Backbone:
């Protein structure tokens, strides 16, 4: 369920703080926790009436965001991912091979797929994305200028 | 400096609250606020009810509880937490271990006091 009903401003501010406090937490646990705590708040608002007074009661009931964050599991440290190392190496190679447009395009597509999968090393994936995007730009520029001169 | 009763309780809660949540669900499924209230009635949960939710997420990821959405008479659907067979086994193992350990600690404290 996605509890996205509007809440008193005080509670929205509390959940924004909670979201920031949980940045270092395991991604799934972070999403589950915020969702379940919003449901807890919605239940109390339905039970006691939607008002700033109830919002204060909900916040007192849930407790300080730092304490909730302390109870959450930390996100695992990004492991060395050989797939992403090869991705970055391939992207760098595509810079040298930018005259063959297929290579930079394939590397860019691979980098996008890896980033969207939400697994592996994000820093390597981001670097590969930028390098392969640069290769695509260079390759496109080369082929456009070649085409213009041919006309 | 001697520890305060609160700091002793905080340490003791660390390894036991998970199983108290499972024990809450043994009699039937419950939604988040209901579990928090049951734990408070048993003086198991601290003032910060929000700390229950990362724990429930972990129990779900471990496969010890599962969730379903059911209609609520007062608002949007409620997420009910159910004890799984695996959770029940985990609770049984904990209960047996805890009973023995608690008895040993009680004996030790009595003998040495």
Residues:
């Amino acid at each position: 369920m996605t509890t996205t009903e509007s809440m008193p401003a005080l509670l929205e501010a509390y959940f924004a703080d909670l979201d920031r406090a949980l940045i270092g937490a395991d991604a799934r646990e972070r999403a589950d926790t915020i969702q379940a705590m919003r449901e807890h708040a919605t239940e109390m608002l339905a039970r006691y009436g939607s008002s700033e007074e109830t919002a204060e009661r909900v916040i007192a009931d849930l407790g300080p965001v730092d304490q909730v964050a302390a109870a959450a599991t930390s996100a695992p440290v990004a492991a060395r991912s050989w797939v992403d190392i090869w991705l970055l190496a391939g992207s760098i190679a595509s810079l040298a091979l930018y005259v063959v447009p297929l290579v930079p395009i394939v590397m860019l597509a691979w980098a996008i797929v890896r980033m969207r999968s939400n697994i592996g090393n994000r820093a390597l994936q981001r670097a590969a994305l930028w390098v392969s995007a640069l290769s695509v730009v260079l390759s496109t520029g080369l082929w456009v200028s070649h085409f213009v001169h041919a006309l | 400096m001697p520890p305060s009763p609160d700091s002793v309780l905080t340490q003791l809660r660390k390894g036991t609250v998970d199983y108290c949540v499972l024990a809450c669900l043994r009699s039937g499924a419950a939604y988040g606020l209901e579990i928090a209230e049951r734990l408070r009635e048993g003086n198991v949960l601290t003032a910060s009810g929000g700390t229950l939710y990362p724990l429930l997420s972990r129990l779900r990821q471990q496969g010890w509880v599962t969730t379903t959405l059911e209609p609520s008479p007062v608002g949007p659907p409620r997420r009910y937490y159910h004890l799984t067979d695996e959770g029940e086994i985990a609770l049984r193992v904990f209960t047996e271990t805890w009973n023995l350990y608690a008895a040993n600690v009680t004996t030790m404290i009595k003998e040495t006091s």
